[in-house]
Amino acid sequence: MAEITWIKLKTDMFDNDKIKLIEALPDKDAIIVIWVKLLAAAGKANCNGYIMLTENIAMNIEEMATIFNRPLNTVRLAIDTFRRYGMIEMDEGDAIRIKNWDVHQNIEGMDRVKQLNAERNRKYRERKKQQALEAPKEPENTKNDVSVTSRMTLSDDTETDLDLDKDLDIDKDKQQTVGQSNDVQKLNNFFTKRLNRFPSEQLREDINFYLETYNDADLIIEAFNRSLADGRVKAKEKYALGTLRNWKHEGTLSYELLMKKEAQQLAGNQLSTTKGQRTTQSELGVDVGF
Q: Quick check: pTM over 0.85?
């Protein structure tokens, strides 16, 4: 899960009709606190509005009661209230998601955190590579941990960040025509035909989120196909996202690389099996050709 340490709360949230209806309930204060805690948990997970316990496990109601330090019955009442008023939605695997997450939060700002860190890491690697080319005999005393750049302040390299801002503005303009891209079209066809999801604004938001996070339509489709093949139809999205996160942590960022890694793993397993069979045959006194 990406490191997000803030969420946005609107100053007029208590003017919302749904909040006013909640304030008429006996447990109004507890329910409103739980709503804010849900928003905070969704922001911390930074997973398109899902309430996650870990990167691969959605938080259930019992776990919410413990983590939010609220009675279980109160949390259940709150969740039922939020569902009734359309403030949350639950997928077929009962994973809870804040509905219209982009309305509550600055999604572009959250994505910008990812983009800034990724861009700084890339530029850091380029600088280190250039330094190595210019002074190949000089011992490298700096650690190769590019993550240190994530802790750099924006003032470390003003020109770099100004250039980055321009690049991000250009990228934003390109994202406005994302509906014309092959990857978006490919994912849209997959979700509507294979998963029977209706074309909607929410589906477009989900597709944009997947592509911004994992950047390979074929890899995303493969993760969903595997969740279906495992018989996990009721939790296909949760398990598919967990699979994608695992691949990302392993450095598998494209479908082509995934196929290459799995082919190498299969070849290694076959070699191990062959060696094991030969060992067994040798122990039984069978001529194995040596």
A: no
**Whole-angstrom distance, CA of residue 87 vs CA of residue 100:** 8
**Whole-angstrom distance, CA of residue 274 vs CA of residue 270:** 6
Task: Write down the residue that tokens 């996070």 correspond to.
Answer: 213
| Lowest mean pLDDT across 3-12, 95-104, 111-120, 234-243 | 111-120
Query: H helices of the chain, where?
Result: 17-22, 28-45, 61-67, 72-84, 101-104, 107-134, 158-175, 182-193, 201-214, 217-229, 236-249, 255-283
DSSP reduced 3-state for 58: strand
At 85, list the tokens.
Answer: 């008023």
Q: What is the pLDDT of residues 95-148, one digit of tens each?
A: 899 988 876 666 555 555 556 666 666 676 677 677 666 655 545 454 454 444
Least confident of 64-68, 139-143, 180-184, 265-269: 139-143
CA–CA gap between residue 219 and residue 210 (Å, rounded) = 10
Residue 108 contacts by C-beta under 8 Å, 6 or more apart in sequence? 172
**94 to 7, 57, 83, 196: CA distances (angstroms):** 24, 11, 12, 18
Per-position DSSP letters for 85-113, written without gaps between them: TTSEEE-TT--EEETTHHHHS-HHHHHHH
State both tokens at 259.
Answer: 């196929």
The number of C-alpha atoms within 13 Å of 275 and in the hemisphere containing its C-beta is 6
**Taking all residues of the chain, what is their mean pLDDT, rounded to a whole number?**
75
- Rounded to whole angstroms, the Cα distance separating 269 from 253 reads 23
Separation between Cα atoms, residue 93 and residue 3, nearest integer Å:
25
Q: How far is CA 160 from the centre of its chain?
A: 27
